[in-house]
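Collaborator request, handled under Task 6.
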Amino acid sequence: MKKSKLTSIALSLVIAFGLWLYVVTNVSQEADYTIYNVPVVMEGETVLTERNLMITSVSADDVDLTLSGNRSDLAKVSSGNTILKVDLTKIYEPGEKIALNYNPVFPSDVPTNALTIQNRHPANIYITVEARRTKEVPVEVVWIGSTPDGFMSDRENRVLDYSSVTVVGPASVADLIEKAVIEVDLSEQKESLSQDYRYTLCDTDGNPVDAELITTNVESIRLDVKIHKVKEVKLIAEVIYGGGATEKNTTVEIEPAVIRLSGGSAVLEELGDSINVGKIDLRTIEKSQEINIPITLPEAVTNLSNITEAKVNIRFTGLLVKEFEVDTIEAVNVPEGLEVEIMEKKMTVALRGTAMDLSKILPEDIIVRADFTGAVAGTSTFKATVHFADDLSSIGAIRSYSVTANLTEKE
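Structure tokens returned to the collaborator:
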């Protein structure tokens, strides 16, 4: 009897709970529910862009909504599946604190008119719209520090992958931007640079501009700049003395004496401490004069002095030139089996020396010898040299000489 009574009580409770649940979910359906931090979504920003407008500030990114409606519908909504749409297509010009309404978009399984907004916070969304500006600004390199002694940076020929940057943003900010500045530290730099640098958007005076609302076409700029070793080298010449000219009576000076070069360390090391501008054969130069000789440098070496020719000053001291008519012309080194007939019977030769030494020599003291080494039958010209007694070694012949000869085979 007692057990039956307990069973009846339990059954009654189950029935009562079921009735309550039915009433709550079906008979008494209406309720209020607040969802927090519902995101605000702007629609029509592309339209603003087409009108050269842009949003620079929004009063709120999300809203708290208090909704009323059927409990089953309220249970389906949350800040994760509900958004608030703001229509921007009605904006045609810039303005501050433009008030905009927003409309909720609920999940697709919640009927459009199922829920009513009882309260919203904030009630409106306020935005600021400015003119949208697009402009090109040049890239400026600011060099910090300097390369160590003995090195130089080729700043004039530096290469940037972008010479300008496109900036897009509110006119109030974009109009302040006049350049994109990258800073390059050359302190202790001995190797060429090739790397990406972040830049800073600056005004005319180089002051950074707050560019939070600015977008650009590139994030960084690649810079290539050569770092060269610098070296001073002496200019020298290979002087061939002769024709009476010696180190005692002849001076050969080169201007400039030194030039400044730049290039790779290995190339400059191989170059040494001097550059030979060429040969100077004093036997071919009759009188004091100045001659210009091009300065030839190896590849990849730059002449920082910008002097392309060396001036060679040649000065003879106490030397004179005197001509003699010589009738002694000899043939030497004639190949076996050939006979030589020299066409010239006399030659005029020029000798250089001091006046005293030249007064001691006579035409009969001078011999012209033509060298026929390797000659073949026929008529041709052959190089000739001037000779005289050993005690007249302070005198020398100048100019170059040749003879014309006919060579025939011996019978």
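The cover message to the collaborator said: "The longest helix spans residues 2-27. The chain has four domains: 31-123, 132-225, 229-316, 320-409. Please let us know whether this matches your experimental observations."
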